[in-house]
Structure formats: C-alpha cells, structure tokens
Specification:
This protein has 7 helices and 7 strands, in the order H-E-E-H-E-H-H-E-H-E-H-E-E-H. This is Phospholipid/glycerol acyltransferase domain-containing protein. Keywords: Acyltransferase, Transferase.
Length: 188
C-alpha cells in the first residue's frame, strides 16, 4: 500500500495525466510501452501502473538480476526472470509464464532498447499471438506529460500487417529524448 501511495504522489507532483483507461476486466495482456528513450521511462511506468491502475503488471529481467542480492527487489516490483542463454527462446519462456498464470500483464518496449531503431522488434507480437492475449499500446509523452493508452487489440495475421498501425500510434509521441523516438519509422 505504501508503495502505491509513493507512486501516486510522484505522479501528481510530476504533473502527469492519463488519456484513456485500463479495461478493468482485463487480467492478461501485453503492454507495449514507448517510445523507450530514457531510464526515466521505467520510473514513470512504475508510477503509471499504480495510478491507472494496471493490476498484475510485470516486466522482464535477466535471471542474473534475480540471483543476486537485490533479487528480492526485482521480484517485489513485478520482475520476471528470463534466461537469455536457455535452449527455449525468450518468446517461449514468456508464453510459458502466461500458461502458468491466470493474472499476468507484461510490459515490454517494442524497440527493445533506448536507442533510436530502424525497425521495431516483433517478440511482443509473437508472445501475444501464441499466448492468445491482447496488446495494449501505452505511449509516454514527456512533452505533454501524458500517458496515452490505446484500446486493446488482438494480434492479426502477421507482425508486418499490424506494425503500420503500431508505428502510427507511437510516431507523434515525444519520449524524454525525442530524437530517439519513432517518428522516422512512418512510411505513409
């Protein structure tokens, strides 16, 4: 409870607001959060999940983080360990997490990095497709101090078919470092 209060105070004092809402009945989903341009995205995202609220929200971390002395912290904050060197690829590991859990929402960056990218990664799409869960887009606009939530949608026939709409959603959103955003990915 105290943690939620901390994040709500942080959110309010920082001047952020929310456009859209989390579907209250949704307890399993992939949230793609972008543009991911700064470490502050994580802090803002932690606050957002308390304010919106987004129940059962988790994130991925390399398993080595959970083995060390701060493993308790990563688990407490919703971290889920993944083995980057496993014979099962990352998508398979995360789909297995969805199979094991009734309530599981996973936040991922479609860029996979804080650097400017020339294309979005598709792992989030494959996870959602194989797990049979919807995708929700969450844009963090640092210029407007606004979190923008899309309506949930099920992955379509291919990542390539869904990617133009995803890029159109994120392209106008200004990350903390706008030069690393997604506007340059627009093709139409």
């Amino acid at each position: 409870m105290g943690g939620n209060l901390f994040w709500k105070i942080f959110w309010t004092l920082s001047g952020w607001k929310v456009q859209g809402q989390w579907p209250k009945e949704l307890n399993r989903a992939i949230i793609i959060v972008g543009p991911h341009t700064s470490g502050w995205d994580v802090v803002t995202g932690m606050a957002a999940r308390s304010v919106v609220p987004i129940p059962h929200a988790h994130y991925l971390g390399k398993k080595e983080l959970f083995d060390g002395p701060f493993g308790w912290f990563f688990r407490m904050t919703g971290g889920v360990p993944v083995d980057r060197f496993s014979k099962n690829n990352m998508v398979e590991q995360v789909v297995e997490e969805f199979r094991k859990r009734k309530d599981f929402v996973l936040a991922l960056s479609p860029e996979g990095t804080r650097q400017r990218v020339e294309r979005l990664r598709t792992g989030f799409w494959h996870i959602a497709k194989q797990a049979g869960v919807p995708i929700i887009m969450a844009g963090m606009d640092f210029q407007k101090k606004e979190l923008i939530l899309s309506e949930p949608f099920m992955p379509g026939v291919s990542p390539e078919a869904d990617m133009p709409a995803i890029i159109r959603f994120f392209a106008p959103i200004q990350g903390r470092h706008p030069e690393a955003g997604m506007g340059h990915l627009l093709t139409d």
